[in-house]
């Protein structure tokens, strides 16, 4: 993406924020306006913005040429709706996980003047999405499909979060619940739909396409989202904190990670017992023992093999798609994540 397009994308945020803090449906005063502005600036534009920028990228690849100012604005507005949705998930997720930092700064609810007001802020962030859609897309033939798409993906993501939370219930640490199929379900619903399918689906709708005719695109993107999360699980343990920007805690947090699922698959009875005794413990000695077992089971090579197989399978699925423009969109996504280090 050109620097020019990215700077135009960032300008759209300012426009949308200004509209939201002057929304005629609510009588704002200075205090409420300042609160919303601070809350938005803290939570919405701080990440890598990959999901949002992907809508603009994908639309441009579908069109196959330069975008008009109106097309840049509308595709950026849809991209920001995804970033708003992401902010809503993360603000509430951090409260549920009792996290301390997010994107290199304290979690929103950890700020002294915020606390549990963050729960309502999460609800507000979620409610901003239909306000943006109504303001800019109400007259479009695909408006109802857009609203439906955001509602459905939000439902899928919240349901994925539920499976994740009830699978990793504190006090009920039972590794026998963990399997590849459980991992896959969590990942598919919690991450893949909103991070991979939603940006492309937004671009397809804006381009005038019928999503029901693109079931195969959805399947490929969900597969890609699964591969992305497996990379994430791998980097949490084997990545360098300086590069990935965080210290991995999946072992301590008893996460249903691809690594532990694979370890359980490959381990002998003694090693399984060892995992049951050490996985999910906060003390560094137990974490080190689990990592040592991962090395003994050669999980790095198992992951490399998985990565090569996934890449080949995804490429074949993409090349089987009849539309060259859709192929370009999917290849662009795959190119961004293949062999990533962070």
Topology record:
Blueprint: H1 3-20, H2 30-43, H3 50-63, H4 69-97, E1 101-102, E2 105-106, H5 117-137, H6 143-167, H7 180-206, H8 215-238, H9 241-244, H10 258-266, H11 269-278, H12 284-296, H13 299-319, H14 324-337
Antiparallel strand pairs: 1-2
Helix pairs in contact: 1-4, 3-4, 3-7, 3-14, 4-5, 4-7, 6-7, 7-8, 8-13, 8-14, 11-12, 13-14
Which characteristics define this entry?
mainly alpha; two-stranded antiparallel sheet; (2E,6E)-farnesyl diphosphate synthase activity; 2 domains; 71% helix; 1% strand; 14 helices; isoprene biosynthesis; Farnesyl Diphosphate Synthase; 342 residues
CATH architecture of the largest domain: Orthogonal Bundle
Strand order of the largest sheet: 1-2
CATH-defined fold name of the largest domain = Farnesyl Diphosphate Synthase
Would you list the SSEs in sequence order as H and E? Answer: HHHHEEHHHHHHHHHH
**Global Rg:** 21 Å
CATH class of the largest domain: Mainly Alpha
- Characterize the biggest β-sheet: 2 strands, antiparallel
Low-confidence stretches: none
For the termini, the CA-CA separation is 19 Å
Q: Whole-number average pLDDT?
A: 93
Q: What is the SS-derived class?
A: mainly alpha
Helix content: over 70%
GO molecular function: (2E,6E)-farnesyl diphosphate synthase activity; dimethylallyltranstransferase activity; metal ion binding
Keywords: Isoprene biosynthesis, Magnesium, Metal-binding, Transferase
GO cellular component, one term: cytoplasm
Organism: Achillea asiatica
């Amino acid at each position: 993406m050109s620097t020019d397009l990215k700077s135009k994308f960032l300008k759209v945020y300012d426009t949308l924020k200004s509209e939201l803090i002057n929304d005629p449906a609510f009588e704002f005063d200075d205090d409420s306006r300042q609160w919303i502005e601070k809350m938005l600036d803290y939570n919405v534009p701080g990440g890598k913005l990959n999901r949002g920028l992907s809508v603009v990228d994908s639309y441009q690849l579908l069109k196959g040429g330069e975008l008009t100012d109106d097309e840049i604005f509308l595709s950026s507005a849809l991209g920001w709706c995804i970033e708003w949705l992401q902010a809503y998930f993360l603000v509430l997720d951090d409260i549920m996980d009792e996290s301390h930092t997010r994107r290199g700064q304290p979690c929103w609810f950890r700020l002294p003047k915020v606390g549990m007001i963050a729960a309502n802020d999460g609800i507000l962030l979620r409610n901003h999405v239909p306000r943006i859609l109504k303001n800019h897309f109400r007259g479009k033939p695909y408006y109802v499909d857009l609203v439906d798409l955001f509602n459905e993906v939000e439902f899928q993501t919240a349901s994925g979060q539920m499976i994740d939370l009830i699978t990793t219930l504190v006090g009920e640490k039972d590794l026998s619940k963990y399997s590849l199929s459980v991992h896959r379900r969590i990942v598919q619903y919690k991450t893949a739909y909103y991070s991979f399918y939603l940006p492309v689906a937004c671009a397809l709708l804006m381009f005038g396409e019928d999503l029901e005719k693109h079931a195969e695109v959805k399947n490929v993107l969900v597969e890609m989202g699964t591969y992305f999360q497996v990379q994430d699980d791998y980097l949490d343990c084997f990545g360098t904190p300086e590069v990935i920007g965080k210290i991995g805690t999946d072992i301590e947090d008893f996460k249903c990670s691809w690594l532990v699922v694979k370890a359980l698959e490959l381990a002998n009875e003694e090693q399984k017992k060892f995992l049951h005794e050490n996985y999910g413990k906060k003390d560094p000695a137990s974490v080190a023992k689990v990592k040592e077992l991962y090395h003994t089971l050669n999980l790095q090579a198992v992951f490399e093999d998985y990565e090569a197989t996934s890449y080949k399978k995804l490429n074949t699925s993409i090349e089987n798609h009849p539309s060259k423009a859709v192929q370009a969109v999917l290849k662009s996504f795959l190119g961004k994540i293949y062999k990533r280090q962070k």
